[in-house]
Amino acid sequence: xxxxxxxxxxxxxxxxxxxxxxxxxxxxxxxxxxxxxxxxxxxxxxxxxxxxxxxxxxxxxxxxxxxxxxxxxxxxxxxxxxxxxxxxxxxxxxxxxxxxxxxxxxxxxxxxxxxxxxxxxxxxxxxxxxxxxxxxxxxxxxxxxxxxxxxxxxxxxxxxxxxxxxxxxxxxxxxxxxxxxxxxxxxxxxxxxxxxxxxxxxxxxxxxxxxxxxxxxxxxxxxxxxxxxxxxxxxxxxxxxxxxxxxxxxxxxxxxxxxxxxxxxxxxxxxxxxxxxxxxxxxxxxx
Length: 287
Hints:
Elements lengths: L2 E2 L2 H21 L5 E7 L3 H17 L2 E7 L5 H12 L6 E4 L9 H7 L11 H9 L7 H12 L8 E5 L6 H10 L3 E5 L6 H5 L4 E4 L17 E4 L3 E2 L5 E2 L4 H4 L5 E2 L6 H20 L7
Parallel strand pairs: 1-11, 2-3, 2-4, 5-6, 5-7, 7-8, 8-11
Antiparallel strand pairs: 9-10
Helix pairs in contact: 1-10, 2-10, 6-7, 6-10
């Protein structure tokens, strides 16, 4: 039976560390601020934004919310982003996705100043992740790394399989594992022999967006299984990409949904915001 990786507990530890850093910066006269922009009335987006505001309060980070109407134009949003780029109170900018269809999210992300891009979505920050010279990490993959590290299992030399090739999770997750000397395979919808490839993984990260996609026969005995999925099953219950009940009996470590990767994503956002503040105040070099 697998050991459960408690994302809530680990995220609380990360936020406690962030709060100490925020306090230390305040002693130097530096405040830390995060601007979150939400366009429209997407219920899921509102929940995410509220959770980020709560995390900011826990960490002592100033939270600036900009709630814009559904009919906001692309130009209006670009003007707001430009304003925030030049606001010294704002160290991090996050535009909650998705945005309404009249707005090109690629243009919006590209407009965010790289040093304030706490999601690490801009091309410059993606490039830094590729070459290993980064301070800001994409929140979900970085949170997954923390969860893997919490098990005590070394990534170095391990067979690591990532299911999913999105720009937000799959690709950066593979790069971070590679930087830690894992031997990485990225699988996707066109992968042949998917079951056999996954069954060789010492570390398996599922980020495919399909409820219960990873079954027990796809998992190696004793593997570390990280479930990034956030889906609803036929009964409307929140569940991951992994068939938890079956895989739990075979894996060595496994994240639950909810309570696994989700809390770590927000905790990493808080850490990125502090990192951005330190970098903008000349207190940080490349890691």
